[in-house]
Amino acid sequence: MDLLFDSAGLQLPDPSKEGDSLLSQSGPTSFHDANSHSETSWVPNRRESDSPSPPDADPTYAVDTLSPTSLGILRRLRSLLLPLVAIAYTTFCYIVHFKTIPVRSGGLFDDTSNNIAVIKSGMTSISIIIIGLGLLPIHSLIADLKSEEFFRVTSSRPEGTPLGYVNGISNPSFGMIDSFIVVFRQHCSPYYLLVLVVTILAIITSALAPAALSVETALFDSDVQAFAVGAIRPDDILDVTQVLSLDNPDFSRILDKASRLAWVEGVMEVPYSFQVVESSKYVVPAPLNLPMNVPARWLSDVAVMNPTCTYPVSLPPTYISDYVNYTQLALDGVGVTLNLDTVSLSQIAIVSASEVYNTTDAGYPANGATVFLLSGCIDGCRYDTQYNWDLSGLPVVQVADTDFHNNSTYNVSFLVCSPNVVIETREIRNDGHGRLTVMETPYTPRQGNLHPGQTSVMFSTALGMLDMGGGPSSILNSEAQTILLLGPTATNISGSFHDPPTLRPLPEADIAEIYAHMLHSATKVYLDGTFSTAYVPGRIWVERVVFASSLPQLIASTILLVILSGILILSHFRKTTPQFTLFSVAAALHGSEIPSTFAKAKRWADPKSREAEMVAPMGRKRIVLGKTEMENDVLCLQ
Questions:
Q1: Are the C-beta atoms of 40 and 22 separated by less than 8 Å?
Q2: Does 445 sit behind a cis peptide bond, omega within 30 degrees of 0 on the bond before it?
Q3: Fewer CB near the terminus (10 Å): N or C of the chain?
Q4: How far apart, in whole angstroms, are the C-alpha atoms of residue 250 and residue 306?
Q5: Which of 285, 360, 333, 362 is nearest to 523 (CA)?
């Protein structure tokens, strides 16, 4: 076949040659006139016999593909994948967040806490796979919308779309930054903006959703066993004769140790044995054979404290003219009476527990009270004191001390601190670090390892030697006693015979708080098996691996999956648009001048030039999808 060359150098077949007729071509054909540089379009009068037979008319033609019905069913099933995965995954995550579900391997792998790192890695991988499978329809939707964008943007804009943008959009590897530029300059359809939004949501979901499910360790109960705990029996402190001997060497050592422990834990903050959360509220018998690092829980009697410290008013008389021969003094409102036979008029003294009685029955105080005496000379004073008390505003008793012809008068005030204990059986939990938590709900019947009467006596005596055993010497005899009555900063105060400082006790509420902490520490000596041991029911906790989920991440993942599922479902109702396939592109280019124009540009361009450089010389040309005379879609270059 002879070839002719137009003015642009393109080869065109010679229509004058027989057998090389262009009439066999369907659609308009352009001819260029070398002199006028104009082109004319010619549309042949096509007849039905001129059209090529469709592929299914050729018995030798076979297409290995599914029927449209089958494809539609598969697409719908594919669209259901994301909602089903989202429902199943998020439901499981919510369940494991509110319910403890252990990881069970059925012997396939080691599911103990020693292998938690491997289990956690495997769980993360499985979550990524599940979410990845669920997002497959989203990836397909993104690919479909990108493939449809070429024909959607060229057909929806009568004025056309810039060639450079259309050429980029038609590229499957069109980048994210370029896509943002196209959206920003509004050279795309709204569906392409949807592509960007869905892509970003899918990226966030694929990163966030797998992290919502993980594993952690949790404690599970083992079999019930007997725990040995400290106890106070009915005759441990007071014997059957109701005699309390503080002069007993063994008991004196216990009191001294209790006072030292109150200083060590309360002042030095050095822990001894188990530490109880809310130590100012509870006194807990210690587990004797349980290591601190073993988590467990058990039932035991505990002393629930509601400590108070007050300065009660003494019942008449309010003036004692002969303190030496005066024996008893009743204190109003606290229900105790003091035996003053052995109580000296020191500036600060702890009234021995053996000298404090119930006012009603003359027995030992049922509320476990500890009484402190504070006295200050007001008349006939000797100048051998290192400090003076400021007792203004406090209830006082005036006492005349005629011993050894002193003829001195004192203001005496009594500070009564009571733990106000209630004995209850509670569940106690050790967290595996030596910290005990007392649960709020009481149990019945009681375990009985704390006798109420003996426990009250324990509280009355626990701080009996605080003035001597409470740490280094201080202005109020010991550092612990100084802190109890004056506060932590008072340990730096020094007494002076020449210029004695005036001391004011702390407010009652502050003293009560410090008193409770010291009492909690001091009573550990009584409840560490020194007196008695009891056995109570308990369980050791065994650490196991359980499923866990992060609620904030789970909520965010749920919202994202719902949005993506909604977009996926609504996308099925979009207008049908051809995809960027060989068939669609070839059909749209039939009869168009674009192939010849692009071929000419490529022929004359440098072989090493990039595609963008070849398109650039075409300037502001636009691409639009128009109609031929036969109402066929054809791409035109404007």
A1: no
A2: yes
A3: N
A4: 30
A5: 285
* 102 DSSP 8-state letter: B
In this predicted model, what pLDDT tens digit does every residue of 286-341 receive, in sequence order?
A: 899 999 999 999 999 999 999 999 999 887 777 777 666 667 888 888 888 888 77
CA distances from residue 103 to 109, 219, 543 in whole angstroms, order as listed: 11, 13, 12
Separation CA 148–CA 585 (nearest Å)? 11
For residue 113, the number of C-alpha atoms closer than 13 Å in the C-beta half-sphere is 10
Q: How far apart are CA 448 and CA 424, in angstroms?
A: 9
Task: Map residue 206 onto helix, strand or coil.
Answer: helix
CA–CA gap between residue 490 and residue 482 (Å, rounded):
7
Task: Assign 36 a pLDDT band (cuts: 50, 70, 90).
Answer: very low
Q: Which residue is listed with tokens 């280094």?
A: 472
The pLDDT tens digits of the residues spanning 230-288 come to 999 988 887 655 555 555 667 788 888 888 988 888 777 788 888 998 878 999 998 99
Of residues 315, 302, 519, the one with CA closest to residue 417:
519
Quick check: helix, strand or coil at residue 497?
Answer: coil
Tokens of 352: 């021995």
pTM above 0.70, yes or no: no
Give the pairing type, strands 336-339 and 356-358: antiparallel
What does the block give as tokens for 89? 């995954």
Q: Would you list the domain boundaries of the chain? A: 3-57, 70-213+547-637, 223-304+426-493+502-541, 310-418
Give the other-Cβ count within 10 Å of 154's Cβ: 23
Q: What type of residue is 546?
A: V
Determine the Cα–Cα distance for residues 468 and 480; give it in Å rounded to an integer: 9
Chain CA centroid to CA 622, Å = 56
